[in-house]
Predict the structure.
Amino acid sequence: MNILLIGTGGREHALAWKIAQSPLLNTLFIAAGNGGTSGLGVHVDLYVSDHQAVESFCGQEAIELVVVGPEAPLVDGLSDSLTKAGIHVFGPSQKAAQLEGSKQFTKAVCDRMNIPTAGYGHFTNAEDARAYVRQRGAPIVIKADGLAAGKGVTVAMQLDEALAAIDDCFDGAFGEAGAEVVVEEFLTGEEASMFFLCDGKTALPFGTAQDHKRVGDGDTGPNTGGMGAYSPAPVLSDAMQQRVLSEIVNPTMTGMAQADIPFQGVLYAGLMIDDEGPKLIEYNVRFGDPECQVLMMRLDSDLVPLLMACAKGDLAGQTADWSQDFALTVVMAAQGYPGAYEKGSVIKGLDSLDDNLIQVFHAGTAASNEVITATGGRVLAVTARGDSASQAQQRAYQAVAKIDWPEGFCRSDIGWRAVAREA
Ligand code: AMP
Ligand code: GLY
């Protein structure tokens, strides 16, 4: 079959790499891809906000499945437009994408279905939000309701910080996304992520991971899109995964179906695990980036029939097989990230990494006449597998050392928690 993959990041390189291995694939088209994906499919220049253009392209190229990587086109309703045109899409409808697009929407589902999550208040004006925060005290968490590119959350350890975050939201720091604010109880425990493939009725557990959001070693400094990740997440034991499914994700699937908004695609549950069990921090309606890179590295099954089963609504009875290996990815970013950074520097040494235990997924690169240049903040996700977290970590950093890119940097402690557990 012909498949169209939408996205340009490291997540999409990992998806393209896995899709390209499928015996079911005829041609993979990628809109727009990056410097790492050119050998895996045909790059196409499509303006994905133009749903009509995407639909016409699918007709021309006899596309049987569209796989949407990032959340923005989903929140923008691309899945609805293509589904209406009779094209199979992996990725939720605009309404179902509210699980990521609106914190208040997700909180309401949790209330209705009795799903464990942080207690909260929802506010449309600063005054009421401030009064609530004063009454509750710090630490407390302030969240812009809508999509704010990962920047809309303030975990405030002090009252002043919480009040300032409320003002930021209502003063327009996050645009429309901050016009409504959710104030949450501060949760403690260990964070982890669990992924589920969903077809509207059934949720198939699809791996666990932990990521490192802060830019600096020791989980310090500003938040980023993610500086590294590993899978599996040791804190999510089989028993804990079962609880996430039965207490959080199955009730979500039921609640969405009851509201006539069935969820189809990948559900990414951000969780806090404490002595009482799992609590939902947030949902995303797409794979994590760079969590997807470590999941694809460990997935033994063919990805294509699973994605198609989600799109067609016949996931029940399907299974996914995973390698027992650990996978770990180290993100190399342009110096300055997550602040201002330069583009266009040349990356060398990638050819020296010829090893099936290592994959360098490109996140922000361009390729021209075999020269790879950096085009983004997060640029490479250097991914390795091993028998243990320590071995995968060691391999990933050995690969990093072979990459010649003076304008880049990475954290030196990705996976520290999992490695410490092994020791
Ligand atoms: P989010 O964008 O909702 O994933 O939040 C970003 C990060 O803020 C999460 O990964 C957590 O580390 C932290 N966070 C969010 N909500 C809470 C909460 N209720 N309690 C403690 N930390 C939180
Ligand atoms: N790595 C975090 C995310 O994809 O949201």
